[in-house]
Amino acid sequence: MEKVILELKNITKRFSENPIPAVNDVSLTLQQGDILALLGPSGCGKTTLLRMIGGFEEASQDGTIEIDGQIVCSSDTWIAPEKRDIGIVFQDYALFPHLTVAQNVAFGLKNLNKEQVQKRVTEVLDLVSLKNLEERYPYELSGGQQQRVALARALAPQPKLMLLDEPLCNLDIQVRLRLRQEIRDILKAAGTSAIFVTHDQEEALAISDVVGVMRQGNLEQLGTPEEIYTCPASRFVAEFVTQANFLPATRKGELWETEIGSFPVERGQIQDSVADTGELMIRQEDLILKATPDASVNIRSRRFLGREYRYCLETLSGREIHARTLTHTVLPEGASVELAIADNAVQIFPD
Ligand code: ATP
């Protein structure tokens, strides 16, 4: 049976000057070895929740945080950050500038003799592919290398849980893409559970086993990347994670009628609170464009992104719809198109 490494029960944080909680009644569990991405727009409470797990912020009311079966925060328990057995990686690396790579990594290794420290430093630097840079100082490293040192330093004491707060956000896109895969591989190789804060949807999906989408302090949905993407629990999750289109829709027998056509929707794809009207959600990549003279949708603009074209379409009523197609379908700006939808791709949310 899988083991729970982290359990949050009803965690709330209010900062005194703000009536809206930064974190509002959040409960979740994380299994040993899993990577949780906390995803949400700026100010939704990701960092505050991470800091509470780390012990850098106290909860505002009853609620518990349990790490590996030990309560670290509750109404009558408080375990200090350094006793929580966690590793932390920040966005700005926070390396000691006057220490070499090896000394930085060795920093958190208490209770080990010199040889054991040397052995562990070599091991983790090997894990993050920096073995030959042991004697360098942080200023002699690239941003990506510095972040790998920070990761190695946090991993060296073999923490039960790693907390990573937007660790890639100061890196350029190429390094960022490479490092997110590397971080996942490194965490998996070490078997370390982790929470990774990001506001980048693709990054969250790519790095995690479980995604927690946050909005205004609330945990809006918790699920695997596939669940979050294919079955968003709310319109907010659909918009934030996939930038899906929404169209007002009315039930007409078996079909849902919209201004771009009528479509069948499976019962399971209709949210419970919806009666006969709603918002039909359609992802950009599930729209199929077919050039048709005098059709009701126009291609307002087209952008080439290498692998795909992105189209901005306009309906008769002036509504914008966004579509992405692989580069083998090329339609000119100004053309009128009919829109079809890939099978089972639509969902209905409350209006
Ligand atoms: P970002 O992606 O911009 O870092 P975030 O999702 O991590 O955002 P938090 O930093 O957790 O969001 O902030 C959540 C809310 O709590 C915001 O409204 C923020 O202004 C507020 N907040 C955070 N820290 C404090 C503080 N020390 N004092 C007062 N308000 C705070």
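qc> DSSP finds eight helices and 21 strands in the chain.
qc> done
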